[in-house]
Amino acid sequence: MRNGRLAGGIAMKTLESLTFDNAALRDLPVDSVTENTPRQVRGACFSKVSPTPLANPSTVVYSASAMRLLDLDEEQLQRADFPGYLCGSKSIPGADYAAHCYCGHQFGYFSGQLGDGATMYVGEVLNSNNQRWEIQFKGAGKTPFSRSADGRKVLRSSLREFLCSEAMFHLGVPTTRAGSCVVSSDTVVRDILYDGNPIDEKCTVILRIAPTFLRFGSFEIFKSIDRMTGRMGPSVGQTDILRRMLRYVKHGFYSELPGEGDEEEGAVEMFRQIMGRTARLAAHWQIVGFCHGVLNTDNMSILGLTIDYGPYGFMETFDPGFICNSSDKGGRYSYESQPDICKWNVKKLGEMFSLVVSEEALSSVTEEWDQVYESAYNEMMRKKLGLLSESPDDGSLFAKLFETMQATHSDFTNTFLLLQSATFLDGYDTDRISQTLTDNCLSVAEVRRLLKPAFSKSQCLALMRVIQGLPEGAFNPLSMYGIEVGTVLRDHEIHQNLEKLETQTDEERTQICKAVWSDWIRLYKTRIDLDRDSYTGPDYSGERLTVQKCSNPVVVPRNHILQRAIDRAELGDYSMARRLLAVLERPYEKPAEDWLCERDIGDKGACAVS
Question: How far is it, in rounded angstroms, from Cα 10 to Cα 65?
Fold first, then answer.
């Protein structure tokens, strides 16, 4: 098979002729120890490794658009030996496998060295457009950072990551990409529900693609001993390497910024860009109802990309306290907490930069977060609601919308589609629009099914008494029993809501929901009239609808949709996974299958992934 085929005017490559230029391993320090055993890796950013081969690899699904970033076309992706190359059983010529050393704050506490325990740097491909793309294997075997784990990933978690990576890209959310998902006949033991009933699951490898996979935690290898955990980074004190990393990131990914002759100025401006990208990323997540689930500093990209898809979830019934990670008992990474957690993570990155850069200059940058986030969020929300101009009262309008959605238990994605399809100009009818939105609400029985407290009412009352008796900032004694304050507070609210529903009929609930929606619709209508009055173009209605259709997805990767594809794939049928990818690649178009757009009323979204 020859190199140089043309596809759309672009010279395509073969798997054997990819142009590698592995700058990270050339410009950053590599571990001198070559033995692949668990250890602290000091004074290095990478350790050389080799993938562990898998038996009988086969392709579950691939993304043709992602693989075109590497100048690979469908002919290459359909080769019989393609899965062998893309799971590490066959070595790609020019690849130089390594595992990245990083640290991280996990659930607010510094955990020391973490690193690529199940991920491997494969190399950096230069494509025909002179773009640089780092490629990674996830699930290709043990590394020095695997600790007691096996370095493997399984089909269900791999397929979830693959599909969501591509879905986010096509939704317009900054993200790493996924090129392929390859399964094998080899198995590993996993206890899916952590209930003592482990099963054998098939080893699976996905190919991940991004300009770089460096993260906030990459810089935390220099952190001094943490007063809370007693842990420290493996390269503490080695600021020469920190400066080297800062130069590498700026020259490689922020070369357009000022400060070429002044390293401190360059680092501060780069930090400002990282802060801004992260703030806009958080706004993107909130706008599509996405909950990451594990926003540790080691899961935050220095390019402002969504990275490391684990127990993520797309919100169905709107709930600001939505938690998609079953291990997040305190709700640290809930939907409503994401912007503040991202800001906290940016501050932690600033602490590492401050080892060689003015702390005062960095602090002034973090103070810009709120304005950057709010500006990005409001701009995106206006697009979702088809508002073409700005108003100082928009923030209040948006907040009241979400309060209404919460009170009526409305579906996040479908609410915006209903508002998009409603007529607010000629033929406007508040009653009809409110009724349509009320039909999107849950019945009394459905709400009861949705609300699932962790503790009984009597238990919750007893726990509330303990919490209310604690002085502000005091240690929570319940944490010794695995009980977080956030869990108790959420349960208390759930029991209050369930109590209100005990005597409520469906007719009464419908009336309540319709009245609440009518109040907000009137506010929205007034805002639309003001928007139209300030419009100077030829077709206000057409332009606002065009904006909305590009901002409100019809399909998102809801858990119940993903699970159907996973269940079929685990039986060896990959057709649904491939069909789902095709649908998620066009999220703003209605698919032929109605079930792909439907909510799952009983799905709280929380899961465990390994």
Answer: 14
Helix (H, G, I), strand (E, B) or coil at 6: strand
pLDDT digit string (tens) for 104-148? 999 999 999 999 999 999 999 999 999 999 999 999 999 999 999
> For residue 261, what is the enclosing H or E element?
none
d(CA 20, CA 95): 7
Residues in contact with 518: Cβ distance below 8 Å, sequence separation at least 6, in sequence order: 430, 431, 434
Rounded CA gap, 71 and 64, in Å? 10
CA dist., res. 435 & res. 94, Å (int): 61
Instruction: Give Cα 106 distance to the centre of its chain.
Output: 16
| HEC-encoded secondary structure of 147-207 | CCCCCCEEHHHHHHHHHHHHHHHHHCCCECEEEEEEEEEEEEEECCCCCCCCEEEEEEEEE
Is residue 562 within 8 A of residue 159, CB to CB? The reply is yes
d(C-alpha 65, C-alpha 423), whole Å: 37
Q: CB–CB of 544/386 below 8 Å?
A: yes
Residue 603: which of 556, 555, 558 has the closest Cα? 558
Cβ pair 569, 576 in contact under 8 A = yes
Q: pTM higher than 0.90 for the full model? A: yes
- The model's pLDDT over 209-248, given as tens digits with 9 standing for 90+, comes to 999 999 999 999 999 999 999 999 999 999 999 999 999 9
If pLDDT is split at 50, 70 and 90, which confidence band does 423 have?
A: confident
DSSP state of 568: H
Calculate the CA 594 to chain-centre distance: 25
Q: How far is CA 481 from CA 67, 228, 321, 476, in A?
A: 48, 20, 22, 10
Annotation marks residue 298 as catalytic: yes
Beta strands, E only, 3-108? 6-7, 10-11, 46-48, 58-62, 98-100, 103-106
Cα gap 285→344, rounded to integer Å: 16
Is there a contact between 121 and 46 (Cβ–Cβ < 8 Å)?
A: yes
- Which residue among the candidates 31, 298, 411, 491 is catalytic per the annotation? 298
The CA angle 523-529-532, to the nearest 5 degrees, is 140
Residue 179 dihedral angles phi and psi, to the nearest 5°: -90, -40
Tell me phi and psi for residue 167, to 5 degrees: -60, -45
Take residue 296 and report the two structure tokens written for it: 């540790």
The amino acid occupying position 376 is A
Q: Whole-angstrom Cα distance, residue 169 to residue 453?
A: 35
At residue 116's C-alpha, the angle toward residues 112 and 120, to 5°, is 165
Q: For 497-552, how does the pLDDT look when each residue is reduced to its tens digit (9 = 90+)?
A: 999 899 999 999 999 999 999 999 999 999 999 999 999 999 999 999 999 999 99
**Which amino acid is present at 410?**
S
Rounded CA-CA distance 110/117 in Å is 17
Alpha-carbon dihedral 63, 65, 69, 73, rounded to 10 degrees: 80
